[in-house]
Each structure stands twice: as C-alpha cells, then as structure tokens.
Amino acid sequence: MAKKRKSDAAHLDEVDRTMHSTFCSAANSLSQIFTHAMAQQKLAFQAGERHSMEKVYQWILRHHEEGSRVAVADVASYLQVRHYVIWL
After folding, report:
1. How far apart are CA 52 and CA 48, in angstroms?
2. 3-class SS at 86?
3. Which one, of 76, 80, 81, 84, lies nearest residue 60 by Cα?
4. What is the spatial distance between Cα 10 and Cα 80, in angstroms, rounded to a whole number?
5. 86 and 49 in contact (C-beta within 8 Å)?
6. What is the pLDDT of residues 33-88, one digit of tens each?
7. Backbone angles phi and psi of 46, in degrees to 5
8. What pTM value is reported for the model?
C-alpha cells in the first residue's frame, strides 16, 4: 500500500508541475500580448499627433500664403473647433 501512495503522490506532483508550467506559459504569453498592445497604442497615438500637427501647419501655411497673419488666439480657436489636443 505504501508504494501505491508514493506513486499517487508522485503522479500528483507531476500534474502540479505540468499545471504550473502551463499557467506560467499562459501568463507570459498574456504579458507579451499586453506589452505589444501598449507599444502599438503608443505608435498610434504618436501618428495621430503627427497628423494633427501637419493639419495645423497646413492651415497656418494656407493663411500665410493668403497674406493674413495668424495670431495665437486663431490657432487656439482652430484647435478647439477641430477638437485637437496637443500636449506641450
């Protein structure tokens, strides 16, 4: 009987090790997915910032080519109307 109990205990230990290994692998995969998603989100945010700044630059350039001056208040108003948020 003692041998059977040791065999059962060894089998349970092996199952525990396998489950722990599987859990660790899944946790690491999830962590990698999260890290990748955060990196992609940062890249998308930066692309949006560049796009917004390019639009503002084009707007200012258009006004400059028409011969009108663009005041800071005009730029602020343009940004507010367009719902652009630019962090300085």
Report:
1. 6
2. coil
3. 76
4. 68
5. yes
6. 999 999 999 999 999 989 988 998 999 999 999 999 999 998 888 888 877 665 55
7. -65, -40
8. 0.63
Q: Which two tokens stand for residue 23?
A: 């859990």
59 residue type, one letter = W
Contact of 60 with 75, CB cutoff 8 Å: yes
Query: Would you give the DSSP letter of residue 83?
Result: T
Contact predicate 86/46, CB 8 Å: no
Position 50, amino acid? R
Query: Would you call 81 exposed, middle or buried from its count of C-beta atoms within 10 A (0-12, 13-18, 19+)?
Result: exposed
Rounded CA separation 8/42 (Å): 51
Domain boundaries, the chain: 2-82
49, with CB counted inside 10 A (0-12, 13-18, 19+), is middle
